[in-house]
Design a protein that fits this description.
80 residues; mainly alpha; 434 Repressor (Amino-terminal Domain)
Amino acid sequence: MAISLSEIGSNLRLSRKKSFPNDSMSAFALRCEIGLSTYKKMEKGDLSVGMYQYFKAAEVLGLQEQFTELFKMKEDWFND
């Protein structure tokens, strides 16, 4: 697997710190309307967290467009 769940969690943490440098995990979880314990799991890359919570965080970070591209197939001009 090219990117692991722990890398996604790490990317989330870095994005939070860059976008909201004064926010604690608790403050950011509140922004996302996510419980703190759930948000802590997200930063660890815990598989038990639903995609909706990750989407809420992406939305707060302004990354929802990238999130919605997650399963989008690339256009293939030769094999359509």
